[in-house]
Specification:
Length: 209
């Protein structure tokens, strides 16, 4: 029994089903959150196949013989279309794009709801698992997720503080780069860390209530 699961609508995670179907059969279901279906319909790329079975926020348990796959919806930290597949027997969970293994976030975190992202990573760690696989990079465990929570908490706390002190975005980048130098060894630090600061600063400005 085969199934294709789209974790969320982003094209780098919803392309390729055509090739899998050519290889393994046209009757394989494509399972996704219901908002992934509506988002992909609007996107309208004929190369990206639409889901054939949709799940709502309540999630579902798929049963394949003696193997269960739980599909959980645990928040909108990285689009509101994210399914978190968990294999209870293998104690394995998939956290695609809303967490990573000792890596900073993508560019200036476009469309990342940082407060919700941290809450979502916390909800992830309440699930029962030993191994977490990511959409990009090597797998990790609950400590990996704890380090991600610490990173995004540090980043947003610093951004809010900079805003309270009346710093401009450029000034905030300089100060926060110095204050968070402990993340220098993380992947993509050189490429995206300063952009992460800008994203967090703008997020803090928009959510400054
Ligand atoms: Zn994504």
């Amino acid at each position: 029994m085969l199934a294709i699961i789209y974790t969320h609508w982003h094209i780098d995670h919803s392309s390729g089903a055509k090739i899998l179907k050519q290889q393994f059969g046209d009757d394989i279901p494509i399972i996704a959150h219901e908002r992934t279906l509506s988002r992909l319909k609007r996107w309208g790329d004929p190369e990206v196949l639409l889901p054939t079975k949709t799940i709502d926020d309540d999630g579902v348990i798929l049963r394949y013989g003696d193997m269960n796959i739980e599909l959980n919806y645990i928040g909108y930290g990285h689009t509101n279309t994210m399914l978190v597949p968990r294999f209870p027997k293998q104690k394995l969970v998939f956290a695609v794009d809303f967490a990573n293994n000792d890596a900073v976030g993508w560019r200036d975190l476009p469309g990342w709801y940082l407060g919700e992202l941290i809450a979502m990573q916390g909800r992830l760690n309440k699930l029962d698992f030993d191994i977490v696989a990511f959409g990009h990079g090597m797998p990790g465990d609950k400590d990996t997720i704890r380090r991600q929570i610490k990173y995004y908490t540090d980043l947003t706390t610093q951004a809010k503080r900079a805003l309270q002190q009346g710093l401009s975005e450029d000034e905030a980048v300089k100060v926060i780069e110095k204050n968070l130098s402990q993340y220098k060894q993380w992947r993509f630090y050189d490429k995206w860390f300063l952009m992460n600061i800008r994203g967090a600063y703008r997020w803090a400005k928009e959510n400054n209530t």
